[in-house]
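Render this sequence as a predicted structure.
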Amino acid sequence: MVNPTTRERASVQELIAKAGNNKRKKVIEKIIPVILFLIAGVSVLTTIGIVATLIFETVTFFRQVPLLSFIFGTEWLPFSNKEAKFGILPLIVGTLKITLIAVIVAVPIGLAAAIYLSEYASDTARRVIKPVLEVLAGVPTIVYGFFALTFVTPVLQTVIPDLKIFNALSPGIVVGFMIIPMIASLSEDAMSAVPNAMREGALAMGATKFEVALKVVLPAALSGILASVVLATSRAIGETMIVSLAGGSTPRFDANFTDSIQTMTAYIVQVSTGDAGYGTPIYYSIYAVGFTLFLFTLLMNFLASRITKRFREAY
């Protein structure tokens, strides 16, 4: 028979142990949010540091180069022996050429792949095709660059004899193939989220499967599709290695797609690996160009957010 005194002592010990456990749990519950906040703050502080560095060095650049000549200048000749010229428009035009070609290539192919995966492919085909398609996103961009230079350009030269070795067409096409997985994957996710009731209702009204995909599913998933296109465009604007290897290093303020060009990212690579002296206008120009590129990508991300909110459908 258990002694009542022993039973009371055991109960008291259990209560003390539970109280100790509760205190430890409360301490852990208070510490974990602080740790998570500090971890989340690292990315915020890193972003602030990068932006602050860009702004500070860009302001230093504009103390040496007039702002208006940088924004509206049509000549980019930083290494000129006579008079250096820092008009950003040729680099912006080169970047937009690559982006335009990439979007023309990627959007139709990406949307077609998304429609097939969402509306036509079986579960087995979807499990095989989608990961294979997304493998394209894992290929190093330098490999894409050599592919554009050594394969795509010679193929294009058989069709366009006047095409130079370094041009806008070849890297633009390859950048387009690079961003296809982003458009296809995000668009397919948006289309798969459309309720089946909408498809079944359209089919019951006599619509074909293709009409359902184009006239029902596509408009319903428009917010996600447009956001994927804008994000992919932002990725194309910031592409570096492909355009550096296959696009050339000749800033041009024209609409010619067959000659050598230079994009903002390609110029940054050129100066970063060159002999630009610290404190020179050429050195600070990479920060001014980088800040311009930052504004472009920030605008694209803001546009994607606005489009998503504007066209979001409530299900």
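Summary. The radius of gyration is 28 Å. The longest strand covers residues 76-77.
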